């Protein structure tokens, strides 16, 4: 079974998920149990809840049912290769607020432009697929340049500046020291 096979089984085993991502834990963590595959799930929201605007963490969490997770876990356990362990979990999200200044072309209606840019940001920086976007890629870092690209794709935007991210959870308090993991590249402990 390939990672894509795990993902397809997860998607087809329950109508409760809209995206699935399978990763071999050893590729992410040097100390992981060999042969362990983790399948991360994004819940499917009902069509009537997919209107314009942002998808909140609370709305996602409301649809992350234990029954759906267990159903997918059982389907994968029946099909996984011998010697392979499979862990099924709901995806972990990081909430981010984007602050930026978008300057409109002189002939553009600023309020209408703001609405279109916000809609474009909400659709692109989201775990849920929304045409024409397939949702933010699992594990992809969000960079200031992405916000520039998204906003400048809107024809009424003249330029963008002062882009800033505001995160709810960052390890900035109660850190006394940092230590590097000698066995895992690019890994630090706070």
List keywords for this structure.
190 residues; alpha+beta; 2 domains; two-stranded antiparallel ribbon; 24% strand; globular
TL;DR of this structure?
The chain is an alpha+beta fold and 190 residues long.
Biggest sheet, in brief?
3 strands, mixed
Low-confidence sequence ranges: none
Quickly count the helices.
6
Number of domains: 2
Order of strands in the sheet with the most strands?
1-2-3
**What percentage of amino acids are in beta strands?**
15-25%
Strand and helix order: HEHEHHEEHHEEE
Helix content: 25-40%
The gyration radius over C-alpha positions equals 20 Å
Structural class: alpha+beta
How far apart the termini lie comes to 36 Å
Strands, count: 7
On the 0-100 scale, what is the average pLDDT? Answer: 88
Shape: globular
Describe this structure in words.
- This protein is an alpha+beta fold and 190 residues long.
- The chain has 6 helices and 7 strands.
- The chain has helices spanning 3-13, 25-28, 57-62, 66-79, 110-124, 144-152, and strands at residues 17-24, 36-43, 85-90, 96-104, 157-167, 179-180, 188-189.
- Strand 6 (179-180) and strand 7 (188-189) form a beta hairpin.
- Helix 1 crosses helix 4.
- The protein is globular and about 65 Å long.
- The model has no long low-confidence stretch (mean pLDDT 88).
Element layout with pairings:
Blueprint: H1 3-13, E1 17-24, H2 25-28, E2 36-43, H3 57-62, H4 66-79, E3 85-90, E4 96-104, H5 110-124, H6 144-152, E5 157-167, E6 179-180, E7 188-189
Helix pairs in contact: 1-4
């Amino acid at each position: 079974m390939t990672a894509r096979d795990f993902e397809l089984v997860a998607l087809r085993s329950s109508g409760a998920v809209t995206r699935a991502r399978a990763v071999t834990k050893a590729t992410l963590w040097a100390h992981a149990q060999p042969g362990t595959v983790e399948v991360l799930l994004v819940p499917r929201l009902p069509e009537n809840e997919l209107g314009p605007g942002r998808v909140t963490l609370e709305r996602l969490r409301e649809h992350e049912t234990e029954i759906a997770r267990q159903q997918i876990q059982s389907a994968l356990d029946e099909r996984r290769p011998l010697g392979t362990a499979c862990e099924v979990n709901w995806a972990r999200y990081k909430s981010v607020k984007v602050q930026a200044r978008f300057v409109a072309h002189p002939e553009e209606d600023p309020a209408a432009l703001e609405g279109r840019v916000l809609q474009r940001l909400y659709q692109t920086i989201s775990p849920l697929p929304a045409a024409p976007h397939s949702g933010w890629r699992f594990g992809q870092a969000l960079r200031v340049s992405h916000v520039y690209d998204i906003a400048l794709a809107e024809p009424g935007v003249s330029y963008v500046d002062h882009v800033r991210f505001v995160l709810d959870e960052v390890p900035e308090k109660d850190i006394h020291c940092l230590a590097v993991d000698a066995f895992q590249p690019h890994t630090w402990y706070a």
